[in-house]
Design a protein that fits this description.
It is a single chain. The protein is globular, with a radius of gyration of 16 Å. A 7-stranded antiparallel beta sheet has the order 1-2-5-6-7-3-4, sandwiched between helices. It has 179 residues and is an alpha+beta fold. It is built from 3 helices and 7 strands, in the order ββαββααβββ. The N terminus is likely disordered. The protein has a single domain, classed as Beta-Lactamase, CATH 3.30.450.
């Protein structure tokens, strides 16, 4: 799967207030969490197009649970994505708990984040392939917090994506104001 879209939204007052999220090749993943999650997904996939939900066992990846977000995919047009679980590291990094909410919640942030996430999730549902994304949390006034995430599809029948599991790692950056 080739994803090349770059989304830049939000204030352009300065680097600390700018939101930049982009899809990147899986080969660009560097964090322990995202690499472990991708390896787990590949192991569970085996020879199937996508791994089965029945093969996903959170007890096998306890170190990843704080970094995990799980979204259910409703079938039909348009698809709806409902967040089922949000790990503690995810909540701490964003200051949000999306569990029980849909991607519609992102519309209230006044940015293009909702269509970005929905396009990303729809692409994963269509391709049935994992993808990686990087960026910052500028959409919630935390542009100093960068992330790297891997987004992984799981199916009930080996074909149609029923759940999307993402794992993200965060780091805070310091702007020195230098020119």
């Amino acid at each position: 799967m080739v994803l090349s879209s770059t989304l830049t939204v939000g204030s352009t007052i300065g680097a600390a207030d700018t939101i930049v999220n982009k899809w990147v090749p899986l080969e660009m993943l560097r964090s322990r969490q995202t690499l472990e999650a991708l390896a787990y997904w590949q192991q569970k996939r085996g020879t199937q197009r996508t791994p089965s939900l029945a093969d996903f066992d959170p007890a096998e990846i306890p170190r990843l649970l704080p970094y995990l977000t799980v979204a259910d995919v409703s079938q039909g047009a348009p698809r709806k994505f409902t967040f089922r679980i949000m790990g503690e590291a995810q909540k701490d990094a964003s200051g949000l708990n999306a569990a029980g909410k849909t991607t519609d919640m992102f519309a209230s942030f006044g940015s293009d984040l909702q269509p970005y996430i929905e396009a990303l999730y729809n692409e994963i549902c269509e391709s049935r392939e994992p993808c990686a994304t990087t960026g910052n949390l500028g959409w919630i006034k935390r542009a100093y917090r960068e992330f790297e995430a891997v987004i992984l599809p799981f199916s009930r029948d080996g074909d149609e994506v029923a759940r999307i599991i993402s794992v993200a790692a965060y780091k805070d950056i310091v702007y020195t104001g230098g020119r």
